[in-house]
Design a protein that fits this description.
With 63 residues, the protein is mostly helical. It has 2 helices and no strands. Keywords: Membrane, Transmembrane, Transmembrane helix.
Length: 63
């Protein structure tokens, strides 16, 4: 692995994870406005949403 690749991954990975957190908050805000969920369902929705956004973001960000 080249040094440029390591630098790219160390910059891109935190950016993807941070933006996934922000996007998850936006998605949860919309879900809370549209549906009435219990706390446990909301936590499960948050975990699944964050995981999906992270995986998709990393797949598209890392060549």
């Amino acid at each position: 692995m080249k040094m440029e690749d390591i630098r790219y991954y160390t910059v891109v990975t935190p950016l993807v994870l941070g933006s996934a957190g922000l996007n998850t908050m936006i998605v949860l805000w919309v879900i809370e406005r549209l549906f009435i969920l219990s706390d446990s369902a909301l936590y499960a929705t948050a975990a699944v949403t964050y995981t999906v956004i992270c995986v998709v973001g990393l797949i598209h960000a890392i060549p």
